[in-house]
Amino acid sequence: MLEKLYHYRAKVVSVYDGDTCRVDIDLGLSTWIKQEVIRLFRINAPEVRGEEREAGLRARDYLRELILNKDILLQTIKDRKGKYGRYLGEIWLEIDGQWQNVNDMMVQAGHAVYKDY
Asked: Is this structure's pTM higher than 0.85?
């Protein structure tokens, strides 16, 4: 499995909902991918539209507070995109010198649930 994981430094530039964001990805050697849509892997958060709107907005706002405009470590699954063409990824955020998994933090805070793919 490790051979199918890629790690990149990135910056979160927007958060759409509790499990989707856009990032600028540093590929190294002064090469960047801008505005790439990332779907947080293994979790599902309420939608910001429809019946789940209130919970969806809370999840989105929590994720924004955590990662918007912050430098992160992005762990992607090789060649794996979700059904809407978004790369699936784990987001890691350095907090007090320790790398924390944001996907797990969303579940632990009650803003998402684990999802099987």
From this structure: yes
